[in-house]
Amino acid sequence: MLRLPVIVLLAVSLIGVWTQATPQHADRIFVNGEIWTGDDAHPKAEALAVSGDKILAVGSTKEIRALAAPDTAVVDLKGRLLVPGFQDSHLHFPGASVNSVRLDGLETLDAFQKQLGEFAKSHPHLTWITGGGWGYSVFPNQTVDKKYIDAVISDRPVYVSERDGHMGLANSKALQLARITSDTPDPPNGHIMKDAKGEPTGELKEAAQRLILRHMPSPTEQEVYETLLKHLDEAAADGLTSVQNASWSPADQPVYLRALAAGTLKLRFRFAPLILPTDGGAPRDHKLKTPLTAEDLKLYKELRDMFHGPLIKFGSIKGFLDGTVDARTAAMFEPYVGGGTGIPFWEQDDLNKTVALYDKEGFQVLLHAIGDKAINMALNSFEYAAKTNGKTGRRHRVEHAEVPRLADLPRFKELGVIASTQPLFANPDATVLKNYAVLLGPERASHADAFKLYDDAGAVQAFGSDWGVFDFAPLKGIYCAVTRTTPEGTPKGGWYPENRITVEAALRHYTRDGAYANFDEEVRGTLTPGKLADLVVLSKNILTVPPTEIVKTKVLLTVMGGRDTYRDKDLQ
Ligand SMILES: [Zn+2]
C-alpha cells in the first residue's frame, strides 16, 4: 500500500493535486527495487520517492511512478536492495590524522617494522612518528617491546597505539623525551610496563599514555579538517549516514562547524563530551579532568541547547568504567587466566552520584564498561539514578558491554538501558583467539560479544565500530555478527556459533536501533514517509544471499537527507 505523510494526504484530499511549487514534489524516485524499510508496519516495498531531504512515499513501483513529475529523477534499482542509511553508534571522529601511520591488519613483526620504517622514510618532515592499529599477535609471544621499533626508527620519537587505543608502544627516543625511566611511578589509572630489570618496555597502558601524548605536537586546524573530510568520504562510501561520536574535543569543534558551513559534513553527528574522573586514556584530548565543575555542566547544557540536529547534536556524555580485556584492564569479578581482575576506574558510590546528577540534568549517560564487574557497576548506577530521580527515559547506555554476567542481561530491558555493542569485536582473528579468549577462559569467552544474548534478553542493541582504529564498514560488521567468522571464513562454522544473529537483526541494530539510541526515531532510522531520506543501495540483497556473499557486497549509493554523499561507479 502506498504510504504518504498525513499532511500530504490532507493536501491531496483538500486540493486534489499538488504541484511542483509545493514541498511535496518528488525530486527523485527509486523504482524496481527490494526495499527493507525497518518499519514493522510496512517492512517491504519496491519503490520510494524523495522530496527535498525527506521521504515522500514508499510503495510499489506503480504507485511511486505515479508521483513522478516531468522533472523527477528516476533511479531504476534493477532489483537491488535499498535500506535505511547506516548508523554507527560508537566511534571516534575525526580519526587518525592524515599524517599518521596505520598498522591495522598486520600479522607479522616483519610487516609491522616494514610499515613503520617505510612511513618514516616517506615522511621526513614529521618530528614525531605517530599512529596505531597494531594487535598483540604481531609480537613474539604477544610480548610488546620498544626494541622492535628501535630496530627501525631510533633517531625520531615514535608512539603507536594498540588497535583499541587503550595502550601504546613508544620507542626509546620517545621514552627519553618524556623522561620515563625505571624510577617513574605509575600515574593514577595507568601502568608503565617494565621488564624483569625494572626498565620501561615502552608499553604504556591507559592513563600512562598521557606521559607521552603531552609531548606530541598538536595537529593544526587545517590538518584536522583534512583528516575529517578524508574520513567522512570513507564513511559515506561504507553507507554510513549517522554516527554517535563517543568523544568530543573542544579543540575540534571549529572543524565540524567549518564542515557544516561549507556543506561538507557527510554524516549526522551526535557528540558525547567526557564525564569524569578519567578519560581512560582516550585518544587526542589528553587533559586529565578532575572533579566535575559547575562550568562543565553549564558548557554541556549550552552545547545541548545550541545543537539539536539534524546534523550536529549533543545531549549525551561519556564515561569510562574500565579498560580492555586484551590489556587485562577490563574490570572482572573473577581473575583473568594468568591473574589480575583489571582496574575499575570508579567507586560505585561516586559513580552513582555522578550518573544521577547527569540523569537529573537530562543527559543520556554512556558508560564504557567491558568486564562483567564494570557492566554490573554501570547497571547499578543506572538503577540508582532511576531510584533517585524516577524513571526518566534517558536511554542510558553501556558501551561495548563485552563480557556481561548472564544474571545482568535482563537488567538492560528492565532499566531501559541500551547495549551499545561492536560486531567486529567478535571477529575471531588471531588476537581474539590467542589473547582475548585465552585471557577470559572458555566460560566467559563463550558469552563474550554474544550479541544474540542481548537480543534474546529484549534489550535495544545499537551497533557501532569503535572506529578510530577498527573498521567502520557496517557490511563487515553485519557479516561478522551473522557468521562469527573472519572474512576468510575461519574458524569453520564460526566462533561460538550459537551467538550468531540474523541479517535482519543486524540491520536493525545498524539503523533504527541506532536512531532510537540517539532519540531520533521520530525523524530517521526507518524508511517511513516524512522521515529524513537517509538511505543506502547495496550491490547484493544481503537478506537473501548466502552469508559468505555479504562480505563481497558493495555500497553503490549513499544518500543523506536526499543528497548523494557517495556514488559508486558501478551504479547506473
Ligand atoms: Zn570508543
Structure overview:
The protein is α/β, with parallel strands linked by helices and about 575 residues long. The protein is about 30% helix and about 20% strand. The protein is built from 18 helices and 25 strands. The strands form five sheets. It has a six-stranded mixed beta sheet, with helices on one face. The model is unreliable at about 5-20 and about 275-290 (pLDDT under 50). The site of zinc ion has 4 residues, from loops.
Q: What are the defining features of this structure?
A:
alpha/beta, 6-stranded mixed β-sheet, 572 residues
Ranges with pLDDT <50 over ≥5 residues?
4-22, 277-290
- SS-based class: alpha/beta
Mean pLDDT: 91
Strand line-up in the sheet with most strands:
3-2-7-23-24-25
- Characterize the biggest β-sheet: 6 strands, mixed
Straight-line N-to-C gap:
28 Å
Bound molecules: zinc ion
Count of separate DSSP helical elements: 18
Identify the overall geometry.
globular
Q: Nutshell version of this structure?
A:
By secondary structure, the chain is of the alpha/beta class. Helices cover 29% and strands 20% of the residues.
